[in-house]
Amino acid sequence: MSDKFDIAVVGAGIAGASIAAELGAHARVVLLEAEDRPGYHSTGRSAAFWAESYGGPLVQPLTTASGAWLDEHGFLGPRSGLHIARAGQEQATEHFMAEFASAGVHVEWQDRAGLESFVPGFRPEWTHGVYEPDCKDIDVAGVHAWYLAEAKRVGVALRVRAGLRAAQHGPDGWTLATADGARIRCATLVNAAGAWADPVAELAGVRPVGIQPLRRTIVQLRTAPVPVQTMPLVIDIGEEFYFKPEHGSLWLSPHDETPTPPVDAAPEELDVAIAIDRFEHAVDWQVERVEHKWAGLRSFAPDRLPVYGPDHGNPAFFWFAGQGGFGIQTAPAAARLAAQVLLGLSSDGLTAAIDRDRYLAARFG
Q: In terms of Cα–Cα distance, which of 5, 14, 1 is closest to 320?
């Protein structure tokens, strides 16, 4: 016997959980997760901040649209952001300010004294920067749990240890086989598999769009001085590192993007060393010890924009992937937008300001 659904969603990280929750009120949906629990990979390894500038100006509309929803649901907390630059990077800094200010993002130029007012101990070469006061911390686990709970509330069937093993499309729709031995029939297959998005497409006989997983390392440090909890998220304007306080410790990343197969990512010692070296070239703080380290995967399409919508070759295969490192901060608007595309619905207040054509999978046709 086969279980019958209207829609099967592959992957129960933030992408799969959010779009399943949006679809569940309109269709019979099953959410398939390969691991023992949802969110084991990238969703559970985020640096946990919401910044309108993160992901670039073409991703910013999704982030901005999601901000009010996240704040109203209690998932955003105080932080702010500080983008720092060296002497000689004035042109890059001005360009950064111009492209985000024109989109309505609140950004403020900071001179050396301004930098020092936010974070003590910057090395002399860091001469100016941009303050982003609306940057927030985000409760990643809370957002993910909310969507899983909402999906359950609207009747979505979650199955763990149910990785996709086979997918065949015919005149009557999809027939799927999963790792738990189940056979599932559905009309539409949603690919929300994150780093595994292209392998899922290949399994379903769909041409991959070139989504590449990239490893990102984060290190938790004990430092002297101890970072105050109100310190901003600090991001190098050249995207070589970022760091933020976390309950008396410091979270630091070398902003690495190392191409890798879709795997259970682990930090490399070289990347940890590079992160600490870049941090020590930014501030005159002392690194006392490494408390923890981890890595996650960020998955990008060739143009580094998310991929939403029906596949060019098979409209019954729906992409919801390629969300880089910004999938959590864009989840409310992205999931609503993708669900509207799949269901043929018009935009609403959450998505009205977003150009949906920019993200459609048909651009890879």
A: 14
